[in-house]
Structures are given as structure tokens and as C-alpha cells.
């Protein structure tokens, strides 16, 4: 199944009124159900032009999904590095291997552990 077909299927699932629309407040949930991980700021930026009570059509939603998908890798790396900086107790740009392993395992990123070990 391609991204657009997945998008349509998930969008339809969140259409609680059967009017082929979702509420603007559901945008973040729909994006997350599609495997995206947008920040609240990113969601607000995407829906800022809509009224709080608006109901979005699939055609309204697709550009939002595409924007978030396009920015996914960039934001993921930046957010990952920022998140790891909280574990840098000495402020030298490094964290303890055991803490990193625990963190990545907890987040379900086991593949990343093996990549890090190889480096």
C-alpha cells in the first residue's frame, strides 16, 4: 500500500461523523497513526490557517501529511541529538554507553544500538 492509500484509510478511520472530514484537533492523532512523530509546534504550524472548529477534508489533510513526512528525517535527527544532550552529564558531548543502550531499548530502537556499536 502506498502513502496516499494508507493516508486515506487512516483518515477514514478518524472520520467519526461519516462526512469524510476530521476535526482540526485530530490532525496530530492522524499523523501519529500514520507513523509520523510531529512536535506540537509543527502541528500548530500546519493547522494554523484553519479555525479551531474546522473539519478538514482529505484534500486539506494531504498537504499537511506531505509537509510533516518531508521534514520527518531532519526533525528526527535534530530532536534525537537534543534529547541525548539531556544525558550528557559532563557537558562534553558524550553519554554513558549503558545509559544509551537502556534509552534506545526503552524507545524500541534496538537496530540503532547495533549501528552505534559498529561505529
From TrEMBL:
It holds the Pfam family EF-hand_7. Transmembrane segments: none annotated. GO terms for cellular component: myosin II complex. GO terms for molecular function: calcium ion binding. Residues 2-37, 75-110 form the EF-hand domain. InterPro entries: CALM/Myosin/TropC-like, EF-hand-dom_pair, EF_hand_dom. This is EF-hand domain-containing protein. It comes from Caenorhabditis japonica.
Amino acid at each position: 500500500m502506498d502513502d496516499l492509500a494508507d493516508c486515506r484509510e487512516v483518515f477514514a478511520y478518524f472520520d467519526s461523523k461519516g462526512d469524510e472530514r476530521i476535526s482540526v484537533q485530530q490532525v496530530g492523532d492522524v499523523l501519529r497513526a500514520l507513523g509520523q512523530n510531529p512536535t506540537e509546534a509543527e502541528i500548530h504550524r500546519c493547522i494554523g490557517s484553519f479555525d479551531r472548529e474546522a473539519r478538514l477534508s482529505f484534500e486539506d489533510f494531504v498537504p499537511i501529511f506531505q509537509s510533516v513526512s518531508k521534514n520527518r528525517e531532519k526533525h528526527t535527527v535534530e530532536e534525537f541529538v537534543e534529547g541525548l544532550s539531556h544525558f550528557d552529564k559532563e557537558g562534553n558531548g558524550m553519554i554513558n554507553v549503558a545509559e544509551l543502550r537502556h534509552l534506545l531499548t526503552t524507545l524500541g530502537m534496538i537496530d540503532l544500538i547495533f549501528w552505534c556499536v559498529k561505529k
